[in-house]
Amino acid sequence: MSDGDLVIVYEKHDNMKAAKVRENLVLQNRFGVFKHSDWIGRLFGSKVFSNKSEFVYMLAPTPELRTLVLSHRTQILYVADISFVTIYLELVPSCLVLESGTGSGSLTTSLARVVAPTGHVYTFDFHEKGPASAR
């Protein structure tokens, strides 16, 4: 891991979060304080310890893990649904995909992985903050 990398901090199977590695920052949770500087130079999958000798795992941000840690402004598709969509559409490398409604990007990143390296995903989303969100 390097300064600026995105990592998935795995506490337990139902508690993960995304964090951007920054040399001078810390992550504080119920397990203690984790210094980002201790993460730099480690491999993804490493176990890192807090000041309380508790630990978390630092995982690579795969599309599947990113889907699990996204903030959900919109309804998202999970791995089983994404698999069904890609099979139903018969997507393979070199396909071109037009997606309307990028939303969280959960489906988009998986589609891009399916059609890589020669295919392409074009996506569009429009989100205008309404009066309720301006308060």
Q: Topology of this protein?
A:
Elements: E1 6-12, E2 15-20, E3 26-29, E4 32-35, E5 46-49, E6 55-59, H1 63-69, H2 79-88, E7 96-100, H3 106-115, E8 120-124, H4 131-134
Parallel strand pairs: 7-8
Antiparallel strand pairs: 1-2, 1-6, 3-4, 5-6
Helix pairs in contact: 1-3
Protein name: tRNA (Adenine(58)-N(1))-methyltransferase catalytic subunit TRMT61A
Organism: Camellia lanceoleosa
Give a brief rundown of this model.
The chain has 135 residues and is α+β, with helices and mostly antiparallel strands.
* CATH homologous superfamily classification of the largest domain: Vaccinia Virus protein VP39
Task: Specify the helix fraction band.
Answer: 10-25%
- Total separate domains: 2
Rg (CA only): 18 Å
Q: What would CATH call the architecture of the largest domain? A: 3-Layer(aba) Sandwich
Low-pLDDT residue intervals, each spanning 5 or more residues = 130-135
Got a strand count? 8
**Span of the ends, CA to CA:** 39 Å
Secondary structure tally, helices: 4
Tell me the structural class. Answer: alpha+beta
Mean pLDDT: 87
User: What strand line-up does the widest sheet have?
Assistant: 2-1-6-5
Task: Describe the model.
This protein has about 140 residues and is an alpha+beta fold. The protein has two domains: about 5-60, Vcp-like ATPase, Chain A, domain 2, CATH 3.10.330; about 65-135, Vaccinia Virus protein VP39 (Rossmann fold, 3-Layer(aba) Sandwich), CATH 3.40.50. It has four helices and eight strands, in the order E-E-E-E-E-E-H-H-E-H-E-H. The strands form three sheets. It has a four-stranded antiparallel β-sheet, with helices on one face. The chain has a two-stranded antiparallel ribbon with strand order 3-4. It comes from Camellia lanceoleosa. This is tRNA (Adenine(58)-N(1))-methyltransferase catalytic subunit TRMT61A.
